[in-house]
Specification:
Length: about 240
């Protein structure tokens, strides 16, 4: 026994390290993104003839990711990924224009062939119920920028819900805002708004794709034309 004691002392740090890692893993909860989640983008108008165009609400039809939640600590982390080809223009209610703008967005603005995904990540989250401020790493067209975000967070027994919005400038990511129409007189503003209503469910497969609901009703990106009952066809 006296000969084995020094060996036990030698391996004690490694044993304690494994025990601590196991305890940390046990203290965390993993939430997968649920299909009820919604992530949308709202564009604005710009330029001298901006009045000739419209704002557009754009929905992400697929989202994957997870939240690793450490209760009572500030080291929770979030990862989200969106295929750029899943972005779909929802407004205005003119199907011909929607097809045209969606194609231009995917091919001429986001270049989905070269940049198939956009991602969002945050570390050191204190994901308690209430209001939370965080620095979100937004990656668009291969460029990452930190964006300050404020979210309303509700933590349930088996779920976490986060809602909020943030704005970015497309040019900060090397993206040229869309312009079109006669002589390029219809322009999309450089600054766009991302709005999210994310639901994480304990134990849900993080690889699950999300078919989102109506993007025009997400707080912060509500389509005002729709809320007024304006369904008239308009020409860009």
């Amino acid at each position: 026994m006296t000969r084995a004691f020094p060996l036990f002392i030698l391996f004690l740090p490694a044993l304690l390290g494994r025990a601590a890692a196991a305890q940390a893993a046990a203290d965390s909860v993993v939430y997968g993104i649920h299909p009820a989640s919604r992530l949308v983008v709202k564009t604005g108008k710009a330029g001298l003839f901006g009045f000739a165009g419209h704002t557009h609400v754009i929905r992400a039809r697929e989202v994957s990711g997870r939240l690793v939640y450490h209760p009572g600590e500030s080291r929770s982390r979030l990862r989200l990924e969106v295929p750029t080809k899943s972005l779909e223009v929802l407004t205005p209610p003119d199907t011909a224009e929607i097809r045209k703008v969606t194609e231009a967005m995917r091919e001429d603005v986001l270049h989905v062939d070269r940049f198939p995904t956009m991602s969002f990540a945050a570390d050191s989250l204190n994901a308690r119920s209430g209001r939370m401020d965080l620095q979100l790493a937004v990656t668009l067209e291969g460029v990452t920028r930190l964006v300050p975000v404020t979210a309303d967070v509700t933590v349930g027994t088996d779920s976490v819900r986060a809602t909020g919005s943030f704005t970015v400038k497309q040019t900060d990511f090397g993206i040229q805002p869309y312009s079109g129409g006669p002589a390029g007189t219809v322009k999309v503003a450089d600054r766009v708004t991302f709005c999210f209503d994310l639901l994480g469910v304990r134990g849900l497969d993080e690889r699950q794709a999300v078919a989102t609901g109506d993007g025009t009703t997400v707080p912060g990106c509500v389509d005002k034309a729709k809320s007024r009952g304006d369904t008239a066809r308009r020409v860009m």
